[in-house]
Amino acid sequence: MRCLTLAVVLMCALSLPGVAAATELNTANQAELEMIKGVGPQLSEQWLAARQQRPFASWAQFIERTPGVGPARAKRLSDAGLRVNGLAYSATPATSTSVANSGATSANAAAPAAPAAPSPAEAARR
Prior knowledge:
By secondary structure, this protein is mainly alpha-helical. It has a domain at 19-91: DNA polymerase, domain 1, CATH 1.10.150.320. The chain has helices spanning 2-14, 30-34, 41-53, 59-65, 71-79, 96-100, 120-125, and strands at 23-24, 82-83. A two-stranded parallel ribbon has the order 1-2. Keywords: Signal.
């Protein structure tokens, strides 16, 4: 009886709207990709062709290599169950390395941090 109850609860939970089964972009076939809300034959074929050249290493690479997919669409696709290397999309802010690699001149880059003040023990030794 417990097994039957558990099975019914699981089936109900999986059929709820908004509960999306995860679909891995790097292993899914065309039919599996098209089960994701907002993905049709044209998009799935485009993704499969890009994946055939080389798998997607990250969401950032997926966005970069896929015309028409930006952060907002990546979020919607992720919410619908798409995963890249098992990960849901997560927008991350730019890091200082992206500024350093962007070609910005040193005048535009952040200045190095000032040296820390000496501790009271170090100050007493001076």
